[in-house]
Amino acid sequence: MIKDLQKEQMVVGFFAVKEIIEKETRETKKKYLDLTLLDASGQINAKVWDIAEVVKGEPPQLGDIVKAEANVQEYRGNLQLKINKLRKITETDVYEPQTIIPTAPNPSEQMWATVIRFAEGITDKQLQAAALHILQKYKEQLLYYPAAKSYHHSYKGGLLQHISTMLLAAAKLTTIYSCNTDLLYAGIIVHDIGKLYELNTDSSGIGTEYTLEGEMLGHIPLGLAEIEHLSGLDRERKLLLQHMILSHHENPEWGSPKQPMLKEAELLHHLDVIDARMFDMNKAMEQTETGSLSPKIYSIDRKIYCPRI
Predict the structure, then answer these.
(1) I need a surface site. Which of 1, 57, 89, 118 has the fewest CB within 10 A?
(2) Residue 34 bridge partners (DSSP)
């Protein structure tokens, strides 16, 4: 497993291709492959310096499962694979898909049941109908879609995990901070729905790329458009849901042109941040020895400490 790799090891194993780019060396202009390989435990950068010699058969594409033979090296403080042999899997290869495809820790159907329970518990009939309509319309995609290409919850079922965890956290916070829970729960359910149009992926959640709409608009405007076309919402409720989508990143540099102007929108923003940061910190701690500092986590711009206790 990638998380167990150590410097100067020789490794033979199966990986999924998350990214693959053909580049050129600066001095000789020789072409090489720059890859991000992953399994269920993590991901690692890899290089193919001699494409013709190393790659056997049809070159791998984004999302493919490959078999690789490589040396584990260190580059600028991070482990990296120097690949000596690389090929796409064949029918005769024996491997366990669950060890290669990164997936949310809970089954998708279980997370789906949690989200549906919250949606059905919304007492405001217009907001309940809107939330249930969105969920049923996109159920197939929600069962496998990642929440991002590279950052938090960027694996199979990640978007559903993000929504369900935020709902569970909201249920706790609203026992302390009074607010309209119907509006908050509906806002959580729809806040990232634009990601279904922002990202393009398959049922494995591996080969995730930005769509043209994702590159040019982003998930926030795409989410606004989804609510705009909903029937059955009066002007007030539609405006409130759209504001919660528009402001959930809070800052313009994060993609939100408006800051939260509702208690529910403010709570939604902080629940979104909490869930993303706890995910990134947990992931870093899993890959860090106790009593040590993690490598820098770029999403939060700092290292974290993995305590001994």
Answers:
(1) 57
(2) 21, 47
Strands (E), the chain: 10-24, 31-39, 42-48, 65-75, 78-88, 199-200, 209-210, 292-293, 305-306
Based on the number of CB atoms within 10 Å of its own CB, is 124 exposed (0-12), middle (13-18) or buried (19 or more)?
middle
pLDDT in tens, 75-115: 888 899 999 999 999 888 888 888 888 889 999 999 999 99
Is 79 buried (19+), middle (13-18) or exposed (0-12) by CB count in 10 A? middle
| Residues with Cβ within 8 Å of residue 39, at least 6 apart in sequence | 1, 2, 13, 14, 15, 16, 99, 100, 102
C-beta of residue 41 within 8 angstroms of C-beta of residue 51: no
Can you tell me the distance from the alpha carbon of 101 to that of 205, in angstroms, rounded to the nearest whole number?
8
* Per-residue tokens: 63: 């999302």
Query: Of 158, 156, 166, which is closest to residue 203 (Cα–Cα)?
Result: 156
Average predicted confidence (pLDDT) for the chain: 92
Higher pLDDT, 209 or 170: 170
Residues 120 and 251 in one domain: yes
CATH number for the domain spanning 54: value is 2.40.50.140
Q: Which residue has the higher pLDDT, 151 or 20?
A: 20
Asked if residue 14 is part of any domain, the answer here is yes
Residue 130 CA to its chain's centroid (Å): 25
> 32, exposed or middle or buried, with CB in 10 Å at 0-12, 13-18, 19+?
middle
Work out the pLDDT band at 126, boundaries 50, 70, 90: very high
Residue 214 belongs to domain spanning: 108-283
Tell which residue, 259, 103, 130, has the closest CA to residue 185: 130
Query: Could you tell me if 170 and 191 lie in one domain?
Result: yes
Half-sphere exposure (Cβ direction) of 276: Cα atoms closer than 13 Å: 20
The CA distance from 144 to 224, in Å, is 22
